[in-house]
Automatic annotation (TrEMBL), chain A:
Protein name listed in UniProt: S-adenosyl methyltransferase
Sample GO molecular function, one term: methyltransferase activity
Record key words, sorted: Methyltransferase, Transferase
Gene Ontology process terms (BP): methylation
Stretch list, region Disordered: 247-271
Top-level taxon in the UniProt lineage: Bacteria
SUPFAM superfamilies per the UniProt record, alphabetical: S-adenosyl-L-methionine-dependent methyltransferases
The keyword Metal-binding appears for this protein: no
Organism, scientific name: Umezawaea tangerina
UniProtKB/TrEMBL annotation, chain B:
Domain GGDEF: 302-436
Domain PAC: 217-269
Protein name, per record: Diguanylate cyclase/phosphodiesterase with PAS/PAC sensor(S)
Domain EAL span(s) in chain numbering: 445-704
Source organism of the structure: Umezawaea tangerina
Record domain PAS: where: 143-213
InterPro entries: Biofilm_reg_signaling, EAL_dom, EAL_sf, GGDEF_dom, Nucleotide_cyclase, PAC, PAS, PAS-assoc_C
Top-level taxon: Bacteria
Pfam families: EAL (PF00563), GGDEF (PF00990), PAS_9 (PF13426)
Transmembrane segments: none
Matches recorded under PROSITE patterns: EAL (PS50883), GGDEF (PS50887), PAC (PS50113), PAS (PS50112)
Length: 271, 704
């Protein structure tokens, strides 16, 4: 058949590594299978510091959610949420405000199935299987609408997911679609693999190649590209920066390698 | 608070941070580890000594997600190397063994917890896989059910076949449409569904689709139903490709348009057929005729023929017996025509009223069409019984048959129509064949009659005069006025070319009046010039003129205006003009005669005159037709019969007190014989041909 109807999910093939499970393995989780671990390890071989990069990303997620809570946001739309593991958005949020609302969106059916079983008893949290490139079906989903009150600010999180959206899929337009549906005072938080032109080491390039080939194609973007993706938003201090520089918990978390960290983070506010 | 525990915890944190994700800040981690360190220290020095807290710490590390592969190793090592010294605890055998025991318990607790956690997560992810698969399957089943429902319930026929054309599935609508069950349909290959009426396009596109050159196409296609009927459909065929883009299946969507098609056919049939006889109508006939000319292969060496047919006297039947009978008659005639000319390349159509036409395509010769016409006339001979009436009908037929090259449909139609008119004019109940010469003549006649009124105004007519000579002394006693037409195109035309036409069109009346005036003017001139020896003028009066109510008044006025004594005018009428007439014209003649005008019967002997009646007529002169003079022409011998006839006529005339003029006198012998027989006057080439008035002047002066 030419095109599978939207309501039918893709195959579930455990022999094929999944972005979500490979990521879980790197975080130290066991929500993964042999095929996932094999690629994860091969990539690590090329780039041993990758594990720290991944952990740093996950800590950024925590920092950002905590900051958003401090800013008063109580609703989160976590796009590309991955497999629920230590430090999920709702756990961070509920530690501050148990009434906070969270929607997890991922296209990985296994990640979402797991999410659903974990979240079954939580009234204000849902997981939705959807492609984030289709904002209309995400925002139009009845479950999503039942959890999120779009008349109140929402923080849209695109943590380590935008680099899976190539320019051909119009990331700018996708971002605009989400923000257009939200009230002023909403936020968009982003972390994104990238760096400046020519900065990438051979090891990192090799790791990226292995990952792109065996797991999912990834795009690196420069800081400038990221700034333009966030055009129209008021950037929260410190703007678009290398991940470790984004509101670190402690100066100890920022070492001399931070300036060359292969990824950027930013938080923008819808004016 | 145990001194040194804080420092140890910091070292511990540095050692384990970065090997797995722990959802705490660096400070939180240090705090957490410090509390664990304190538990450890308490356990070390506690009495009685228990290893359980060590076990517990191992488990709490895992719980906080210190699950990196290096975590346990580094922790155990750090405990052994640094803990006692950091805490300032004396290293003695008892402490060392207690520490080892705690290290062991922590490792065991950690291993146990990690194993449980790993198993739990593996369990969870497997369960998630199953859930996801279930979900996917449910969704797939739902989607399949939806498609199935769409397929089965669709009002449009849907069929699926593989790329070899083997039919795999057909929905209910298609089964109903074609009258075959799925099982029966599965026996078929798509190519078995070929229909002889399929346009070449259908199967050419099919081949392209199968080859993957096109993804779908639409066509109109007929199918045979199981019951032998036909189904007209709109077909849309689409190609389904596999993941590699290779052709895999074909899907046909088939809409039954039979009703629409039949309706269209019926409407078309109605538009192209005569509702009364069921025969093709004028429109269809013209379409077919046009197609004959547009047929592939051009018109070279191909022929065609038309019979244009019209019933004789149909109007009478219609008027006397009513339209209903008339209609039934037409139906029967139509049936007979159709019956007698059925066959390939022949078409019988009703053109309207009682006109029918037969088209014969690809005739070999004119004889083919003549045969058709003969058959038709024969077929119509048998009387037609309608509602107690036994009707006999006949028809007139105009036939045109010729090579297509050089002619057109319009030419054929026009010529057939003309020819039908000829058949009627020639006496009906017959066919006439188109004849280009006859047509040319008729066209010329038509042209003449059409241009005659203008010619009269433009003075294209003039009058010649032919002497009437007294046989006793060869004196010119009168002249016959003969009208001529100096036609700008056809040249000088004698009266036989246009008088009849003028009679038909009625122009004879003004023309005759004009001639009368001309002749009277001339007579007046002669009277003035020659006095007593001036000739009278003899002017022909056409039938129509003789019946013109204005005749007497016209004559009188002209005589008056020319101041011509009436006895200088003679009017010539044909026998039929005088004899066949009713009272009124006779009254006119009497009036003229009473006025003093002489009346002559022209061409006497050619009609069927009632001789007895002659004596009651106001006639003064008989002009014996030239045909009787032929037997008297030869120098040596004369035809006894002719001589006897003329002699009898002369005696008869004289007995009635009439003068006799012999027409057509051409030889001296004729003149002599006629004189001997007793004719009073002669006219003819022997004396003089018709000429200009001056020629008459000349004659009057010089004699013959
Ligand atoms: C690297 S993980 C990030 C998880 C989490 N946001 C974090 O940063 O810890 C990326 C996730 O995005 C998901 N993802 C990638 N492309 C996606 C898309 N187009 N729609 C929905 N999810 C997508 C993957 O399945 C994966 O679970």
């Amino acid at each position: 058949m030419a095109e599978r109807p939207k309501w039918v999910p893709g195959d579930i093939d455990l022999e094929r590594p999944s972005v979500a499970r490979v990521y879980d393995y790197w975080l130290g989780g066991a929500h993964n299978f042999a095929a996932d671990r094999a690629v994860a390890n091969r990539t690590l071989e090329a780039m041993p510091e990758l594990r720290r990069v991944i952990l740093t990303n996950r800590t950024l997620l925590r920092r950002m959610v905590r900051h958003l809570l401090r800013l008063g946001v109580r609703q989160f739309l976590d796009l590309g949420s991955g497999i629920p593991t230590a430090g999920n958005v709702h756990e961070i949020a509920h530690a501050v405000d148990p009434t906070a609302r969270v929607v997890y969106v991922d296209m990985d059916p296994v990640a979402i199935a797991h999410g659903k079983s974990l979240l079954a008893d939580l009234p204000n949290v849902v997981a939705l299987q959807a492609d984030i490139r289709d904002p209309a079906s995400v925002l139009g989903d009845p479950e999503v609408r039942s959890v999120l009150d779009l008349d109140q600010p929402v923080a849209v999180l695109m943590i380590a997911v935008l680099h899976f959206v190539p320019d051909a899929d119009h990331p700018c337009g996708i971002i605009a679609d989400y923000l257009d549906a939200l009230v002023p005072g909403s936020y968009l938080g982003v972390s994104h693999s990238g760096g400046e032109q020519g900065e990438e080491s051979a090891a990192v390039a090799e790791a990226r190649r292995r990952y792109s080939e065996q797991v999912a194609p990834m795009v690196h973007r420069t800081r400038a590209e990221l700034i333009s993706l966030l055009g129209g938003l008021e950037l929260v201090e410190p703007g678009v920066v290398r991940l470790p520089h984004w509101r670190p918990d402690s100066p100890d978390d920022v070492d001399e390698s931070a300036d060359r960290f292969p990824g950027f983070a930013a938080l923008g506010r819808k004016p | 608070m145990v001194a040194g525990a804080e420092a140890f915890a910091r070292t511990w944190a540095t050692a384990v941070i970065g090997s797995s994700y722990v959802p705490m800040t660096r400070a939180e981690v240090a705090e957490h580890l410090q509390s664990l360190t304190e538990v450890l220290v308490e356990a070390l020095i506690a009495d009685p000594f228990r290893t359980a807290p060590g076990y517990d710490i191992g488990a709490r590390l895992v719980e906080a997600h210190f699950t990196g592969t290096d975590t346990l190793g580094r922790t155990v090592q750090l405990l052994g190397d640094d803990l006692l010294t950091e805490l300032g605890i004396g290293v003695d055998g008892r402490m060392e063994s207690r520490l080892s025991a705690l290290q062991g318990a922590l490792a065991a607790g950690y291993a146990r917890a990690l194993r449980e956690r790993t198993l739990a997560e593996q369990e969870a992810i497997r369960a998630a896989v199953l859930d996801a698969r279930d979900q996917a399957e449910t969704a797939l089943r739902a989607s399949e059910a939806r498609f199935r429902a769409m397929f089965t319930e669709a009002a449009i026929g849907i069929g699926i076949a593989d790329i070899e054309g083997r039919i795999l599935d057909v929905n209910q609508a298609l089964q109903d449409m074609l009258g075959f069950s799925v099982e029966e349909m599965r026996q078929y290959n798509i190519r078995d569904l070929m229909h002889p009426e399929d346009s070449g396009n259908v199967w050419r596109l099919y081949d392209q689709l199968i080859a993957g050159d096109c993804d779908h196409y639409r066509a109109e296609k007929r199918f045979h139903r199981a019951d032998g009927e036909q189904v007209w459909t709109h077909l849309t065929l689409s190609l389904v490709r596999d993941d590699h883009g290779e052709p895999q299946y074909q899907v046909a969507m088939i809409e039954d348009v039979t009703d629409r098609h039949l309706l269209q056919n019926r409407l078309r049939y109605q538009a192209l057929h005569d509702p009364l006889t069921g025969l093709p109508n004028r429109a269809l006939f013209l379409e077919r005729l046009g197609r004959v000319f547009n047929a592939v292969g051009g018109t070279t060496s191909r022929r065609a023929g038309l019979c244009y047919l019209d019933l004789d006297g149909f109007k009478v039947i219609n008027d006397s017996l009513g339209h209903d009978i008339g209609d039934q008659l037409l139906v029967e005639v139509g049936r007979r025509l159709d019956h007698s000319v059925s066959g390939d390349g022949k078409l019988v159509a009703r053109m309207g009223g009682d006109e029918f036409v037969i088209l014969v395509e690809g005739s070999a010769s004119t004889q083919d069409i003549v045969n058709v016409a003969d058959r038709v006339l024969h077929e119509l001979e048998a009387p037609i019984k309608i509602g107690g009436h036994e009707l006999t009908v006949s028809a007139s037929i105009g036939i045109v048959e010729r090579p297509l090259e050089g002619t057109t449909a319009a030419d054929l139609m026009r010529d057939a129509d003309i020819t039908l008119y000829w058949a009627k004019a020639d006496g009906k109940s017959r066919w006439a064949l188109y004849n280009p010469e006859r047509n040319a003549r008729e066209v010329a006649r038509f042209t003449l009659s059409a241009t005659m009124p203008a010619a009269l105004e433009r003075d294209e007519f003039y009058v010649d005069y032919q002497p009437l000579v007294r046989l006793a002394d060869s004196r010119v006693t009168g002249v016959e006025a003969l009208v001529r037409w100096q036609h700008p195109e056809f040249g000088r035309l004698a009266p036989d070319r246009f008088i009849e036409l003028a009679e038909e069109t009625g122009l004879i009346v003004p023309l005759g009046r004009w001639v009368l005036r001309k002749a009277c003017e001339e007579a007046r001139r002669w009277l003035e010039e020659f006095g007593d020896s001036a000739p009278f003028v003899s002017v022909n009066l056409a039938v129509r003129q003789s019946r013109d109510p204005e005749l007497v008044r016209d004559v009188k006025r002209i005589l008056d205006e020319c101041a011509l004594p009436p006895h200088h005018l003679q009017l010539e009428l044909t026998e039929s003009a005088i004899m066949g007439t009713a009272d009124e014209p006779l009254e006119a003649l009497r009036a003229l005669s009473d006025m003093g005008v002489r009346i002559a019967i022209d061409d006497f002997g050619t009609g069927y005159s009632n001789l007895a009646y002659l004596k009651h007529l106001p006639v003064h002169e008989l002009k014996i037709a030239g045909s009787f003079m032929e037997g008297l022409r030869a120098a040596d011998e004369e035809d006894a019969v002719d001589a006897q006839i003329v002699s009898t006529l002369v005696q008869l005339a004289h007995a009635l007190g009439l003068g006799v003029t012999a027409e057509g006198v051409e030889t001296p012998s004729q003149a002599k014989r006629l004189h001997r027989i007793g004719c009073d006057t002669g006219q003819g080439w022997f004396f003089a041909r018709p000429g200009r008035p001056e020629d008459i002047d000349h004659l009057l002066r010089g004699g013959l």
